[in-house]
Amino acid sequence: MTSSRRRPFFLSAAALVLLAAAGCDSTDAAASVTVPSPPSDQAALCGALHKELPKSVAGQDRNDPEPASDLTAGWGDAAIVLRCGVPRPAKMSDAQSQAVEADGVNWLLEERPEGPRLTTTYRKTYVEVTMDERFAHDVTPLAELAGAVKKTVPATLVVP
């Protein structure tokens, strides 16, 4: 009788180990992000941007997040994630907020424990880039994305 009780437990434990091992293999899995839902004119700009984005950024190969969309892109294992057509960040109204400039594109900087979030300023749609902590003090990814942003997302007038 004892062996019949152990057998189901043994099989269940083996099944759990296999399931856990399968769940831990995330090297090929893409990150998951929320896809923005901008108005159609902004979505068109994002579609154009998507086509111009580089194959690699800061040494990270292109690995777009799920679900697949022209409004999102990624590089590395979620090291760098771009979302286009995001809402205007509330911090953009804060006169004390920080900004950076990279190759002619201005970005609002929001420092976060997991890494910086940057959002374009003075563009016809907002482009957000999140980076993990490795890029906390590195504007290289922004400089590598700037050409595509300038080419496809027109600047707006600067508001005083």
Give the topology.
Elements: H1 2-24, H2 40-52, E1 56-57, E2 60-61, E3 72-75, E4 80-86, E5 98-102, E6 105-110, E7 117-120, E8 126-131, H3 140-152
Antiparallel strand pairs: 1-2, 3-4, 4-8, 5-6, 6-7, 7-8
Helix pairs in contact: 2-3
Description:
This protein has 160 residues and is an alpha+beta fold. The protein has a single domain (40-152), classed as 3-Layer(aba) Sandwich (Protein Transport Mog1p, Chain A), CATH 3.40.1000. Helix content is 31%, strand content 22%. It has 3 helices and 8 strands. It has helices spanning 2-24, 40-52, 140-152; strands at 56-57, 60-61, 72-75, 80-86, 98-102, 105-110, 117-120, 126-131. Strand 6 and strand 7 form a beta hairpin. Helix 2 crosses helix 3 (140-152). The longest helix has 23 residues, at 2-24. The chain is globular, with a radius of gyration of 21 Å.
Mean pLDDT: 83
What is the N-to-C order of secondary-structure elements (H for helix, E for strand)?
HHEEEEEEEEH
Distance between the termini: 82 Å
Number of domains: 1
Oligomer kind:
single chain
CATH topology: Protein Transport Mog1p, Chain A
The best one-word shape is: globular
Helical proportion?
Answer: 25-40%
CATH architect. name: 3-Layer(aba) Sandwich
Number of helices: 3
- Name the beta content range: 15-25%
Any idea what the radius of gyration is? 21 Å
Low-pLDDT sequence parts: 1-28
